[in-house]
Amino acid sequence: xxxxxxxxxxxxxxxxxxxxxxxxxxxxxxxxxxxxxxxxxxxxxxxxxxxxxxxxxxxxxxxxxxxxxxxxxxxxxxxxxxxxxxxxxxxxxxxxxxxxxxxxxxxxxxxxxxxxxxxxxxxxxxxxxxxxxxxxxxxxxxxxxxxxxxxxxxxxxxxxxxxxxxxxxxxxxxxxxxxxxxxxxxxxxxxxxxxxxxxxxxxxxxxxxxxxxxxxxxxxxxxxxxxxxxxxxxxxxxxxxxxxx
Length: 245
Description:
alpha+beta
């Protein structure tokens, strides 16, 4: 079906429309016999009365109407104006305040942890070192006692060689047991042991130190071989090497 166009009084082109619409427009009086129309296939615009037979319209002939020149091509509508839309971009929310430990607090925690570890290490070292230090201290005291008895040992051996017997407390040059009190030594008894050897018995005093207090160190002198032998009821780890059992 052909598409129709018609020109209004101001030469504005209308359409496309089907043929039935053109007929209806004519019958309603909106267009007249001299209204210029055009359809697909027509060479140029013509008055409507030129298509009465084709459209089935009644005879609308009248005085000839000059054919106007072809309608100029209507200018293409201008492109729509570009509207610059400014989109309001909301400002980013302020950075959330970082909640947590401050640098000083973290450093404090690290220092505290290191301190605890250091204390634990020191405690372990102390637990290992203190017994050894304690042994060393007590061994130093028994060694000192042995050194203090050194001079008395010479006097005993000389007396036994001269008098062919063992000296006792009260003999010439020898005092009472209590007279030899000095530091860790509470008293020294001089006499003859059960085995027939001459000897010294040094009783120790060390209040608060049960490892030594009231213990004894015995120095046994063999007149036949002129040798001394040391023994004690003090634990070996608190004694000089030559006095251990």
